[in-house]
Amino acid sequence: MEAQMEMLRLSDNKGFLVSDIAEEVLDRFQNSQQEEHHNLCATVGAISQALKEQGLSLSPVAYFAASVSSFIRLIGDPSSAAGDPDITAILAFLSVLLPRVSPSVIRSKGALFSEGLVRVLEHGSLPADGEKAALKCLSHMLVIGDKVDWSSVSPLFGVLLNYVTDHNVKVRRQSHSCLSDVLQSFQGSPVLVGASEGITSSFERFLLLGGSNPPSSAAGEPKGAREVLFVLVALKDCIHLISTKSANMILKYCIVLMDMQQSGVMRSIMEIMQTLCSGNTSNFSAKLLLDLLCSFALSIPQKEKSADDMASIVRLLNVGIKKIYSLSRETCIVKLPDIFISLRGILSCEHEEAIFSAAEALKSLIGSCIDENLVNQGVEQINLYAVGETRKSGPTIIEKICAIIEGLLDFRYCAVWDVAFQIISAAFDQLGRSSSQLMVGTVLNLTELQSLPDDEFVYRKQLHECLGSALAAMGPENFLSIIPLNLKAEDISDTNVWLEREGHIFSARSAEGLIYSLWSVLPAFCNYPTDTSSSFKAIHDELCNTLRQEPELHGIICSSLQILIQQNRSVLLGRVDTPGEELSTPVRKAKEMYTMELAQENLRALQSYSSKFLSVLSEVFLEVPNDSGGCLQSTIHSFAFISDKAAIKNFFKKNMIELLKVTKQTVMVKQSKESASMQVDNLPDEDFITRSRALRLDLAVSLLPGLDKEEIDLLFSATKPALQDEEGLIQKKAYKILSIVLKDSEEFWSRKLDELLQLMILETASCHFSAKRYRFDCLFLLIVHISKEPSSEQKIQEFISAFLTEILLALKETNKKTRNKAYDLLVEIGHVCGDENRGGKRENLRHFFNMVAGGLVSETPHMVSAAIKGLARLTYEFSDLITAAYTLLPSSFLLLQRKNREIIKANLGLIKVLVARSKSDGLETHLKGIVEGLLKWKDETKNHFKAKIKSLIEMLARKCGLGAVKAVMPEEHMKLLKNIRKINAHKERITRSQVGADSLYSRTSVSRQSRWNHTRIFSDFGDKDGNDECFTENEGTLSRTSFPASRAWLRSRRMHKLLKRGLPEDHLDQPEDDPLDLLDQQKTRSLLRSSFKPKRKLELHGDEPEVDFEGRIIVRDEWDKPKKQKSSLDDISDIKSLATSRSSTKSLFRSQRKRQKTESGWSYTGADYTSKKASGDLKKKGKLEPYAYWPLDRKLLNRRSDRKAAARKGMKSVMLAKNVKKLEGKSAARALFLTMKRRGIK
Fold first, then answer.
1. Is residue 1221 part of a domain?
2. Could you tell me if 567 and 660 lie in one domain?
3. What are 1186-1231's pLDDT values in tens digits?
4. DSSP secondary structure code for residue 724 in this structure
5. Which of 310, 726, 846, 1062 is the least buried, fewest Cβ under 10 Å from its Cβ?
6. Would you call 204 exposed, middle or buried from its count of C-beta atoms within 10 A (0-12, 13-18, 19+)?
7. Which of 466, 437, 322 is nearest to 375 (CA)?
8. How would you class 899 by CB atoms within 10 Å of its CB: exposed for 0-12, middle for 13-18, buried for 19 or more?
9. Residues 1068, 162: Cα–Cα separation, whole Å
10. What residues does the RRP12 HEAT domain cover (predicted)?
């Protein structure tokens, strides 16, 4: 009692005062409906009230002293604690209170409380909630207690350890958590060994108890077996916290328990091992852990294993082997072949998750455990017996692993060859050059798979990728020594020409084809080569000669040279890869080898031959009729970066002299055409001169990286006359050159800005339409540079005044690229005016918007519609302008009254932008005006835009709700809203029915980045289904689930796609505005296949029910049953439509008329002239001469002979057999003459 009063006096120490914990407990549990919470609140309230009455502060120490005093008083007789709820409530309060009491106070004054806890827990009279609270208090006392003397800790720890096997699951889980916390606090202290031995001895005791006692009749299991499982579950969280000796003992016992093959025991052991392998501790024997992992690996092939169990074991093997390798490499590599065999066996199972886990584990172990020393051992062993000596020793570990990997190409694994190819590729990448000795058999087996027919082998692409990995790892020389091209073979099928196209089969049956195939691998050889400095000298002459003589190889050679230059320059400039970019192993290794010194040596070798290549490339560039893809020009541009500046300048001056000569010839030709008296002999063709002038300009700008200030000024001087040329080609080249110079030369800006502005203004009227795209590039760069200058507001206004009309009119250009440039320029001007970080203001942006709106008062519809498009684009980009755009709505609705379709399309696009970009609350304010304005204009014009108006109404309904739109909708247009509601409801039903149809695919939301799509906004027709997808980058993407699919999954997906090929919507995945590419055979065939309806005979046989095309059974009366008749393909489609029709007799009559027209081929066959009473034809007054016409019938293309025979019957109406015999052997002209003569036609 004296000790507790002393604790109460300690509460006066201000260092321990915190917030009133009793109030916190009461606030938390006073509204609870559970009885134990009511008891807790009552007990805490009584303790708090008692402290207040005694005048003590409500500190944690005071609460602790009062609670312990009450606890000791109540447990005087432990047997009575079971029926006293106050003890449970006090223990619950103490479990919350103890962490807030100073540990020094608890250590000095908590001995009595510890003894009481031990006494009440050992007696076992507490309810489950009381035991949980007591265990929390006990663990806290152990955590903060003295950790020097095991004898003082042993009583408390023994009690905690006894509750690890408690039969109440809640109490048991609480004890496991407390045990983990206690062991964590024991780390580095002397008592850890005693605690670990206590856990081990308890585990041994239950093992002996379970092994010595027979199973009880009630439970059906030995006494102690369940306790063993409970201890294993507890060790899952604390195995890494006990001593090394105890951990190794437990691992030994786990190896013995593995022989039981009990799923629960194996799962618990697996969790223990997962804890050991995943953590950073090493308090165990690597050999024991490896033996345990091997036991799990041997247990995998059992058929009763589920997919989850197999996947869990595979993941454990992956983590465990890498852990053991990091601890003891020599111990690990001995067992690697056994682990690889077990993982390979999983690939032949039927569980997708297990297959994926095994493949990932194999690739991970290949990358982590196959090191250089292991590979060198195998290579040395192979080289030792390469001379032909008899091998006395067995295969090395790496040879065994390579043989196991080669076994993946066995036909047992044909269903997962795509996964096997990935594993083999990982092995090639890891082995590198040594794979040419260790994996020769694998390469040969891969080559044999290439000969399989396509219908039996569906992984051709994956095979070629795997062979590509082998080629990159071994090197071309070693690879071709294993699989030679064999070009001298007499039979073309014996050659390996397919190797030359990097994964594409190329049928090279001629010498030219073989040459092209060999050249096609040059870019691959130029990808990070290490011998450029020494080997480029040997091939540069051949490259130059080929450029002169073989035009079809220009692209290959030029791309190869560009790869060499760009890769070495990027290394020299210190450019890093894009963050998140995934690099293949060969590329990553090659980049690691590419040092600054190596890049300098390579560029030095390329630079020594740059003059020769520039001469050859420019010569070929000026001679070839077409530089496909600009490869020659871009290669000249790349060489200009690394060549000597003096050589570049000299080469540039020579080109400019030739350009001057060509320009003079152009002037002479124009003068000769204008003056008839002036005749100049030997003048070249005008088209030839124009083309030569354009090529010279392109060649000059290609040398820009090597030019200085004087040369750039000379190029600009030569470009200015070209800007005024009448030829569109020359103007286009001039503006393109000017835009390139403006992009690449910052120094040129400061000197020529005013001159450039004046030049752009002067050439506004004379600009050819084909050059506008590059002209807008120049204007874009000009406005960007002007905005960077200080006090540029006046220049910006002058720029807008000078070019705004031209920019707006360009929004109506036919060329899409020109329109896009005009829109970009308009937006950039808006940012320059409105962005504060660029010196702009919001007032300037609104002023610019009003200037664009000034185009609405123009007299020409073309300019009015262009201004509206500009307003729509600015409104779309800048949310600050939405309010200003709403003020233009009355004018917009007035413009809708005009019958000009150009203006109407633009206005509807503007309204669509406003609806899409406005928030729902702001849109509701203008909702009535928008709806009435859309529906009140003239019907004769509105009929052309019904789909677009409906799309706008649907957008309004989605934004504001159907109820809001219905409130402002005119009564005469309610049917439109009703139709929209029905369509949306139908779509929702379809969407709900399709949810979960394919579990491997799911709709995921992606970032909805804004993308302006003026083609969809201002189109003639409404967007399909009323969707506003023109305002978003991606509405959603189909993404796979977490694991990639293996062979079986891919096969099911492929069959699913094959089944869907007949649906037209599955083939027409391109945008509605894009034309169908008729050169694409796959799309064309798919479209043709989808255009035909599935044909099904509707004739009924016996008691078979009549079914329509949607699968519904049709019930007919006896008098209404259709008669059986032989019908053509057109008849079948008509019968189908009759069977599914719910229309009236009038619709049936229409169908009969349509069938009559179809049978006649929709053409006049001349049957009207046939005489019904006599043979021959009749002449009719007011009609043409009698004739007969055989209409084209698609049944002639049918494969069935009976269909063709039915189609050929129409020939009888054209010619009689007796007349045909007379015309046999005659020419077409003679036959026509005899026919006309017989009919009396002259």
1. no
2. no
3. 766 666 666 666 666 666 666 666 555 455 555 555 555 555 445 5
4. T
5. 726
6. middle
7. 437
8. exposed
9. 70
10. 349-499, 503-622
